[in-house]
Amino acid sequence: LVIYTSHKQEVYEPLVREFEQRTGIWVELETGGTTELLERIARGDTDCDLMLGGGADSLSAYASCFSPYYSVYNDNILPRYRSADGSYSPFSVLPVVLIYNTKLVRMNPPEGWESLLDSAWRGRIAFADPEVSGSSYTGLCTLLQALPGDREENLKKFAYNLKGRQLSSSGEVVSAVAEGSCYIGVTLEETALKGIAEGYDIAIIYPREGTSALPDGAAVVSGCAHEANARSFIDFMLSPEIQQMLEEDFSRRGVCGPGGETEDIKLIDYDISWASGEQKNLLSLWRAQFEGAEK
Questions:
Q1: Ramachandran region of residue 210, left (φ > 0), alpha (ψ -120 to 50) or beta?
Q2: What is the C-alpha to C-alpha distance for residues 287 and 283, in angstroms, rounded to an integer?
């Protein structure tokens, strides 16, 4: 089974090891950013069987590359996380959050998405390149949907506030804030919770305007060589044992049962169709605004 994954090693390694032990199926892995890997799949220059990782919006944008599959555990998935066309299978729920350095920001911490447009934070925001990171793209779309006003103008303001700096991967956001090279950042709840558990001087903010809590997922590549094995992996990741492991060992919310509930968070009505349909246009606009912003 050939898997492309944008997950961090501490997520994919134990999952793959457990899958190999249970099934006897040998897994080959290739890692990278979500958008980078999806583009390779779209070009067809790959032997990938399964894309593991990427938010529902990113996977939906490449739905034509995937073979629909409904897991044997599909009925266990909370209805709001299910894929309508089966082009991907959800894996875990990933709220987008803001973080800040508790030593450097002692007064007036960020309260929500509007803070990211405040000139007081210019050059101090940790944000990964949304052309590489799927979670960063979700964060950008969440900001645009959560704030009032013209979305293109808000995108321009946010790009300007980064002062010519964006990180190469979402995994760098927590460390940049914890080390003090940035004061605040945009990341996933899971990543922030792990950083806090490791003793980093950071705190989580759930934006006052509301945030998104999209599932990430996995998708079977159309015409792949090992389709049955790819489907077996999806069934494996949705099995009750693995869903429970997500919550106990990975600081993630599962998509099946009580673990996927998000009543503790104020959520926006995130428009996946808009985010996936506008992906290429938004990323093109982002590139133009970011590169053209005054350093």
A1: left
A2: 6
Task: Select from 160, 155, 188 the least CA-distant residue to 282.
Answer: 155
Residue type at position 228: A
Helix residue spans in the chain (DSSP H): 9-23, 34-43, 56-61, 134-146, 151-161, 172-179, 189-197, 227-237, 240-249, 272-277, 279-292
State CA 96 to chain mean position distance.
8
Q: What is the pTM of this model?
A: 0.86
Cα–Cα distance measured from residue 6 to residue 52, given in angstroms and rounded to the nearest whole number? 7
Angle between helices 227-237 and 9-23 (to 10 degrees): 110
Distance (Å, rounded) from C-alpha 231 to C-alpha 68?
Answer: 10
44 DSSP 8-state letter: T
Chain position carrying tokens 């492309």: 4
Percent with pLDDT over 70 in the chain: 99
- Given this model, what pLDDT does residue 169 score? 85
Give yes or no for residue 127 having a pLDDT over 70.
Answer: yes
Return the number of other C-beta atoms located less than 10 Å from residue 15's C-beta.
22
Which residues face 125 on adjacent strands? 184
Sign of CA pseudo-dihedral 185, 191, 193, 198: negative
